[in-house]
Amino acid sequence: MDLVRRNVQIDFGTIQGVLPWNMIPSDVDGLMEINGSFLMIETKFRQAPLSKGQYKMLLAMSKLKEFTVLVISKEEEEAAPGVYRFLPTHWRTFTNGLMTDWKQCDMDKFKCFIKEWFKYAR
What we know:
alpha+beta; seven-stranded mixed β-sheet; 2 helices
């Protein structure tokens, strides 16, 4: 079963204004590393847009050959109190500074993507 326990959001508002442009840290939904290759996963509920800062950060990461960036649109279904089933519906990738359009996805396609990335990274 593909279950995710929701994490508590950290409020970095207390450091807002310390850096220019109201910059604050971004949360990371998923990050994996194998042999110096990284898979960055950002999840969005129902194709919600990336913030301007997230977009710029993911775009910059995608220009680094060590990074594969995947944005997953999801639905959630409560499986138990505070525990949600992860249901991917669409995805888009950032590669070499370019972002693709949303493409339909399901759990099988998502798992296949992860396996292919693992082969590539090994």
